[in-house]
Design goal:
Largest sheet: none
Protein name: Spermidine/putrescine transport system permease protein PotC
Pfam families: BPD_transp_1
Number of helices: 6
InterPro entries: Bact_Polyamine_Transport, MetI-like, MetI-like_sf
GO biological process, one term: transmembrane transport
Distance between the termini: 44 Å
Subcellular location: Cell inner membrane; Cell membrane
Length: 130
């Protein structure tokens, strides 16, 4: 389990870092200086200024890394042992044999979950604009 976890973290972490870094790159440092001048501690600055600004980028990075992790069958097949059966490998082994109703049902559930997540993210983005 730990080898699979480390492999997926190593594979997905650069995507999350680039997403969050690009969001924080345009951040105005004067806000941090103003918070320090007003007596805010480092923890308060992180909690009340930096994290709310980076929240959308962290969510986008999480969704991107989740999608990449779910899609990456090759890394999973190399690093898992015979005792673990994870979803990408299960789908791959089911499709190798042939398309069955179970594969179709699983693909439908995954598609519906993806669409629900996209709709929720669009609704949240629309509320943020107002």
């Amino acid at each position: 389990f730990f080898t699979l976890l480390i492999a997926h973290i190593t594979f997905c972490l650069p995507f999350v870092v680039v997403t969050v870094y690009s969001r924080l790159n345009g951040f105005d440092v004067k806000m941090l200086e103003a918070a320090k001048d007003l007596g805010a501690s480092e923890w308060v600055i992180l909690k009340q200024i930096i994290l709310p600004l980076a929240k959308s980028a962290v969510a986008a990075g999480w969704l991107l890394s989740f999608t990449l992790s779910l899609d990456d069958v090759i890394i999973s097949s190399f690093v898992t042992g015979p005792t673990y059966e994870i979803l990408p490998l299960k789908i791959y082994s089911m499709v190798k044999v042939g398309i069955s109703p179970e594969v179709n049902a699983l693909a439908t559930v995954m598609l519906i979950v993806s669409l629900v997540l996209v709709v929720i993210s669009q609704l949240l983005a629309r509320e943020k604009v107002k």
